[in-house]
Amino acid sequence: MGTEHVRLLNEAVSGAEVGAVFDADTARAESVAARCDARVLDDPMVLIKDEALDCVLVASSDGTHEQFVLSALAAGKPVLCEKPLAPEPAACLRVLAAEQEAGQRLVSVGFMRRFDPGYCALRGELGSGGIGAPLLLHCIHRNARATSTASSALISGSAVHEIDIARWLLDDEPESITVHTPRASRQAGGIQDPMLLVVRLRSGVLLDVEVFVNAGYGYDVRCELVGETGTVSLDAPSATVRRGAGFQGRAVAGDWRDRFEEAYRRELQDWADAVRAGESSHAASAWDGYVATAAADAGVRALSSGRTEEVALAEQPVLYR
Ligand SMILES: NC(=O)c1ccc[n+]([C@@H]2O[C@H](COP(=O)([O-])OP(=O)(O)OC[C@H]3O[C@@H](n4cnc5c(N)ncnc54)[C@H](O)[C@@H]3O)[C@@H](O)[C@H]2O)c1
Fold it and tell me: For ligand 1, atom 32, which residue shows the shortest CA distance?
């Protein structure tokens, strides 16, 4: 993801420049930096404090996010952190406390679907009242091949995107989660894949998510919102239909970088514009990052208990009231 963000910042975002790069894998940092003429630093904390840099983007492994975001807050800098804000709800609360201490909303979280033209249009349709009051949100999240060997990653790494987008689309909060487990695919290497999550939102709307990360054929994300007087769904993202030799069809994205390239670009442009203006971005906030992690945590508990688990949320910090 870091490589992709640097590429987009360099090629497709105006008013932003990548000044320095750090990665625990120095060769990787060097190859990324060479493409955009950035410095390679050998200490992430030195990079974060560097006065020549206005803001920080964190795209390292999940477990490292908290320390880097806390350091950016201590330096008073805006920080865009890839999802998850942190893998544990308690770590997200520590970030929220530090942001409250800093006195400004400096943290953005990379739930990029909020910038996808399809999801934005879907939200607009709901807002226009054309489908009436929402009742159900059906989602599918399929990958060609799993990127993790843990069953819990289907919830904390994949379905967490649907949990965030449901909150954003419906302006609602998750109340409880149940995880249903069909027979596992023999292509899944021993993990529970696929699975079906049912999330009850506080308004009574139900969100269901099929997660299938060894679907084989590609990266396929679908979403249909059912209202009292109609439905609205994402259309196929490809702009063309190919026909030939007894076949007619649309290409399927290889992974999230293909499918959501425009969303990542818009997310980065919005962040760059916000940093230059000294304002908060329109991306998911540290609070949104906390709620997503708390809901995913309840989902992982539901997977192991086989029961419906409540999503218990802490009180919102004053900064968010
Ligand atoms: N928004 C999305 O759609 C999306 C998609 C994929 C990944 N992600 C998130 O992006 C992050 C990176 O995922 P990825 O797929 O690029 O993983 P990756 O394993 O390909 O890359 C992680 C990088 O972090 C580096 N790293 C590890 N520990 C570090 C440390 N202490 N300091 C600095 N660098 C360190 C590794 O060397 C590696 O280069 C993860 O948090 C992941 O959840 C988000």
Answer: 24
